[in-house]
UniProtKB/TrEMBL annotation:
Gene3D superfamilies: NADP-dependent oxidoreductase domain. Heterodimer of a catalytic heavy chain and a regulatory light chain. The lineage of its organism: Eukaryota, Metazoa, Spiralia, Lophotrochozoa, Mollusca. Belongs to the aldo/keto reductase family. Glutamate--cysteine ligase light chain subfamily. GO terms for cellular component: glutamate-cysteine ligase complex. This is GCS light chain.
Amino acid sequence: MAYPCPVFPNASSLFVHSGNILNWNRLKKKPLQSQQEEFIESVKGTLSSFLESSQTDALQNIPKLNCIHSELKESLPKEERSELKLTVKIFLYNNQPATIVRDAVEKVLSELDVEYIETVLLSWHAEFGEDEDEDELRLKHLQPYWEVLQDLHDDDLLLNAGVSDLDRDLLEELYDWAKVKPCINQVNLASCCTMPPELIEYAKATDIQLLTHNDPKAMFPDATLQEIIRNYTTQMDSENWVKRQQIASIICVDGPCKPNNACCGKWRCQCNTDLTCFCNPQTMIHVTNTGILQALSVLLQNVNKMVNLQEKSEKPLQFGVYRYSSYGS
């Protein structure tokens, strides 16, 4: 539907909650979608449904919009908490302040209505200074964020902390410096067909678990985000949205999974949730991405707008997959 004027010109945040996407017929018809395709489809579907059921005139002056599939929204049963293992993966972009880690964890705790998370993983995707190679990640870049994780650990909000895609040398530097030692290092097999031998040797010596992942580096390009908003609202609504940070991956299982992320016979993976954050250079936005049976959350932010991302998880057969998105302006 085309709109003659901006739909939500005064909104400072937009929260998108897809509900249990396992109940989405449109996704059931596309079972072989990639993580990226599924994520984009969930954002499109939720935004479209919200606008179709809303009196758009009423959105003109609302500062905070809640875009929710109410009929598909479900919660995490407290009686099943002991059967679940929660893992949150946070993707960090463009020198986001370290406080974003606590914000993300506290949001997950609130959305899932749980008191703690088993594991939080950090993944750095950023430029680290004008005088440095943008691909050169150093210990000094990790330390502020890791200190926040250590505080969360001291507050009993998380049990374990891990990282993603650190090479052997940087992993050793972090391990030697940190009070709360990293217990997991994820490795993207798109960049290496086999685990580096020196990394395997060090991980064995320090009891660090090596896991594989296939998270795309560009899960939700800025142009895609802008296009989705533009297609369902107006050009003005879509302008100046850029990615800033991504919070990802909540995995719920009723037992431990194998190191290669495959489930062993006795245990079954229940859900996987990814979050992503997007920001304008002067503001911030969050978005969440997920895999085929993943629960997501998305935070986005526009020029002069600030977005807050939320995320949630599901148990596929019991309650399902969720996606949340927040946009700010």
